[in-house]
Amino acid sequence: MKNYIIKIFAIASLLHVTGCTSDFDEVNTNPNTLTSDQLDETLAGPTFANALYKGTGNASWSLPGDDYGTYGLATALHSMVFAHYMTPGWAAETDANGINDGWRSRGWLRFYTLAVPSLLNTYSATEGNAEATAILDIWKVYMFHRFTDHWGPIPYTEAGIGGSSVPYDAQEDIYADFFNLLENANATLSASSDSSVGVFRDYDAIYSGDVEKWRKFGNSLRLRLALRISDVDPSSAKTHAEAAVAAGVMTTNDDSAIYEVTPDTYNNFVDIMKYWGFYMTADMESILKGYNDPRMAIWFGKVSDEDSPYYEDYVGLPNGGGALLDRTASNLSLTNQETTFAEATTKDIEIMVASETNFNKAEGALKGWNMSGNAQSFYEEGIRLSLEQWNVDADAIAPYLSGTTTAVVPTFGDLYADSTPPVDVPVAWASTESDQLKQIAVQKFLGLYPESWEAWADLRRTDADILYPLITTLNASIGTGVMKRITYLPNEYSTNGNAVNEATSLLGGADNGNTNLWWDVN
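^ SusD/RagB family nutrient-binding outer membrane lipoprotein, sequence as received from the core. Prediction below:
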């Protein structure tokens, strides 16, 4: 995407913004700004550009109304630590299954007051344009599925339209709408005679308006969500998964949804990992070292302090152990800040990658779904695509696929009550279905890095035993296992109380971190 396009974000910020609850209206309504009835296709591109960037969970100091701290609070200190991708070198509550009201509030507020209104403004600006609406429907599913999979019932049907009280929708109903939107989007884009959507072409930092690539992205999302509901509604899951694959999903890295960054819309992961004191986790060290995984050197840096006993080694910090160990970089591995994650303005953002789709097809094949191929082939292709995505030398791929080693005890493994590595399967395709499912879970976990929203959701869905327990916990009901959900905001209870209380009823359990979401039945 051309850099000059980003200048139009200032225009998008002037559009009338309505929030989720009453306090959002007061904060975001400006009588001097444009209103939705003033929107037309001349503003479709700017509003779409805003919806894309805000919808990824990233934010920029260069753009009005937000900054990159939103990513740090909403992603790095939640799903990033819940999935054991990274861990802070300080005693953060969420790293020990605790709750911090301000941290989770930041992500909720920015989503409903910035991302959602931008999406709705784009719908208004493109009214009557079927292909543009189909792409927006796909992006709507992407944006909202991440949030409902964090909280459960959320404002959805009436989100962004304002009012003194906004109802929450049941997650089952939200998912039903997701599938309808994705199915219809595929039908619309399949029937289109256009190769690209003109109003989006110069403003689309993911696909430049490419109809076929957006179509594959939508179908790949449908496959992802089909797996998500496979335990609670196996019949519907099979139907949606088979339909998605038959319609056409991502097959190559060229199909992957990657957001092209600019100096103004940059990759927040890079800077948050640099400046907020995050380190490689013991789980990542255990798996990557055990597999002799070439991605370890691409993702992480060696301990560089010559006085450290771990000099020139890769060392991970156990999750939940931030206050127990030396918290300086001298004894722990940071992200690779020399090459891969050196510059936030040049490292593009992974939205959804083709390797995941192949792992999803591999799992579907093991379930007996028609994925147009066999599980082993999809599994191995998923690994190959992930290695190629990260520019691993081609000569290293075959040896990795045939590897027979398993995970190792990490450097600080003695801090665990049982240091035995949870990952006890090799890379080479196993002979039993239980081991094959675990292999798929492990390789998808690696292939998703650093997209932690999906990684955390998939860990909860599969209940795959691939992570060490936390060293400490701040929540006795959850213990040292994987956090199940984020709780609702105190501000929502005070300004939208009746709706939140109804949401708790829809949730089917207490509003705490140990209540399973609708699809998480195992």
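The chain is about 45% helix and 0% strand.
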